[in-house]
Amino acid sequence: VDDAERLLSLAEEANVRIGVGASHRFLPLRSVLPARWRPTLAVYHAAGLPADEWPLLLDRAVDWLRTLLRGEGVRRIEAEPMRASALADAHVFGLRFANGRYAQAMIRRHAPEPAENLWVAAADREAEIDVRAGTAWTRIAGAEPGPPSFARHTLPEADPVHDELAQFVRSVQDNVPAPVPLLDALQSMRTAERVRTRLRRT
Questions:
Q1: What is the largest CA-CA distance in the chain?
Q2: What is the CA radius of gyration of the chain?
Q3: Which of 43, 80, 148, 175 makes a 20 to 30 Å CA pair with 103?
Q4: What pTM did the predictor assign?
Q5: What stretches of the chain adopt beta strand conformation (E)?
Q6: How far is CA 65 from the centre of its chain?
Q7: Residue 141: phi, psi to the nearest 5?
Q8: Which helix (H) or strand (E) holds 57?
Q9: Bridge-based pairing state of the strands 41-47 and 102-108
């Protein structure tokens, strides 16, 4: 975080554009979400993945949740490690954003098989995305009574790294902000560091 803040200051002084590598943002998750839809709740869940990936998963969870809910500021962070041994078996945390929206995440060690999922919802619809399988289920609230109807989607194939680099090149050519500006990424980094601090204290 300190290095990113210094880099931001230097970039502003030199009037240069900096883009941050966040290729997970370029996975086609939004393809199943309406462009103008504003979810109010989001849950991230990862399980059965190697422990050395947990720091990356936590960073990705915070960034995805903040981006999906357009959370520019965090009012409250709740975090709890669940321990059955010297190592944490799960990390659970919640984020209440300044815009009133709420996010929750759980990263756990043991599972029948590896999983990484996102669930987002508002009063009118919900979507559950299986990141690893590239599939999603969506449901739109209807006026008709009866059980909810779900639609299954297959996410389009994508090359997130290529797409991110291509958008950054276009931003330089068109003299517009980078697809993931440093200031935006820095907010996610600060939030993730606050979560880590809370996990270490409990």
A1: 60
A2: 18
A3: 148
A4: 0.84
A5: 41-47, 74-83, 88-97, 102-108, 115-121, 125-130, 135-140, 150-154
A6: 4
A7: -70, 130
A8: helix 54-68
A9: parallel
* 117-168 pLDDT per residue, tens: 999 999 889 999 999 999 999 998 765 666 667 899 999 988 888 888 888 8
Tokens of 129: 């995305």
**Residue 7, token pair as written in the block:** 């880099």
Could you tell me which residues come within 8 angstroms of residue 66 by beta carbon, excluding any fewer than 6 positions away? 95, 97, 103, 187, 188, 191
Residue 148's CB: how many other CB atoms inside 10 A?
9
Query: Which of 117, 139, 97, 102 has the alpha carbon at shortest distance from 48?
Result: 117
Q: How confident is the model at residue 18 (pLDDT cuts 50, 70, 90)?
A: low
Which residue has 């987002």 as its token pair?
A: 120
Q: What is the residue type of 25?
A: R
The C-alpha angle 69, 73, 78, rounded to 5 degrees, equals 85
User: CA torsion angle for 189, 71, 194, 93 (degrees, to 10)?
Assistant: -120
